[in-house]
Amino acid sequence: MPFFSFIVPVYNVRWFLPACVESVTSQAFGDVEVILVDDVSSDGSAELCDQLAVQDARIRVLHLAHNSGPGLARNAGMKVATGQYLFCLDSDDLIAEGAMTRLHAAILRQGHPDMVHVRHDEFFGLRPSPSAGGDPGAAGASSVEDFLRPTLSSPRVGFQVWQFALRRAWVQDAGVAFREARICEDNDFMLRLLAQAQSVGTDGGVFYHWRMRLSGSLTSAHAKGWNHIVASAAGMLDFLCAQALPELLRRWAILNVHSIVLQFEDVAAAVRAEDLDQHPGLFDPFERHLDVLAPHLHEHGLLWHIRAFGARPGAQRFCAWKAEELQALMRPAGNRELYGFPATRRCSRLLDTLAANGYAFKGLLDNSTDKQGLVLDGRPILKPDILPLCHGEGGAFVVISTFRRGTALVLAEQLRGYGLEEGRDFVYGEFESD
């Protein structure tokens, strides 16, 4: 029985998969198995999985009969895994060098906790920068509530499944599996696990390298898969309302539901009435449990519309209102060259929504040298220096979309330096207050 089972969903990632697998199999700690779950790839990834398995007996391959999405692919891998601990590794990411030896020692020292939270960093390009080894002495096991308490004030309240090693026997006894939603499915899965966990360990150093993959990322999937976003939030809401959860876990779950609702609101302008007709009852849980979400009813938001008009009529009115709001936002654009600023997933998501409403963007602007020459969801990333060179009727028109007001104001000042005027040549998309 290996100590770690790495579950790797594989879908059209042949350029990234070899490095991902090698980051596991080349480690000094070799008591592992790697389960590659081919989700009906069409780019040669399926054949590559078989080739990798021939090269290393620790690699096993499952070929699914139908494309199922990452969650159900992970379920298939977890069913056949034999390791003491499961780790769901995304096929374009990497395990840090030497990290498995440290994590193994931390698990033994902490008495085999149900879940072990690992640290991660982010990188662009082919290889991450060297990471500090961390302080193993800083790691330790705690209760679920003690683990979650610091996250309640964090901008990111949810977790990705790859942020945890999971004790396999406990996961099986808990009977928790991924559900069919393909976006935000991690949030739902983690809530159901945390509701049954007795202990959460932590690892003191960077374990996981998360590749900020620009070309072919999942950002554009949010607009097309809006129903999966809603399904994840609705499933979490039904679950937390049906369970007697500890108060702190309940608060954390409600914050998660709200954060997923905000993700839907980001793309709602791309959703048409006929799209909603294909998913009857999808918004009903929000109407049933509006009292739970009462602290998050902001004026003109989705929940506000559902309270005023009911589940489906409220969702329909909200989506139509968001489309009208975008039309008003873009009214000064005319026939000019359109750009988003900066090159982030949030900004790209807004551009996807605008594209669904008929606006074609030339690209994204960004000051980061790491991003220059890359492509995010089919849009080239360019330096803002190109703005004075833009042609078309009146030059360029820029949409700023950031998480923070302060960042938006800095970018706006930069655009003014190129002679652009707020309201005429650039506008603010959505951002949160600092």
CATH class of the largest domain: Alpha Beta
Q: Per CATH, which architecture of the largest domain?
A: Alpha-Beta Complex
Mean pLDDT over the full residue set: 89
What low-confidence regions span 5 or more consecutive residues with pLDDT below 50?
216-220
Strand residue percentage: 15-25%
| Series of secondary-structure elements, N-terminal to C-terminal | EHEHEHEEHEHEHHEHHHHHHHEHEEEEHE
Strand order, sheet with most strands: 3-2-1-4-7-6-8-5
Shape type: globular
**Terminal-residue CA separation:** 49 Å
At the fourth CATH level, what is the homologous superfamily of the largest domain? Answer: Spore Coat Polysaccharide Biosynthesis Protein SpsA, Chain A
**Number of spatially distinct domains:** 3
Alpha-carbon Rg, integer? 23 Å
Largest sheet: 8 strands, mixed
Give the % helix. Answer: 25-40%
CATH topology of the largest domain: Spore Coat Polysaccharide Biosynthesis Protein SpsA, Chain A
The number of helices is 16
Give the class from helix and strand content and strand pairing.
Answer: alpha/beta
Question: Number of DSSP strands?
Answer: 14
In short:
By secondary structure, this protein is an alpha/beta fold.
Give a written overview of the molecule:
39% of the residues lie in helices and 17% in strands. The protein is of the alpha/beta class and 434 residues long. The chain folds into 3 domains: 4-211, Spore Coat Polysaccharide Biosynthesis Protein SpsA, Chain A (Alpha-Beta Complex), CATH 3.90.550.10; 221-327; 330-428, Rossmann fold (3-Layer(aba) Sandwich), CATH 3.40.50. Helix 9 runs antiparallel to helix 10 (247-267) and helix 13 packs across helix 14 (311-329).
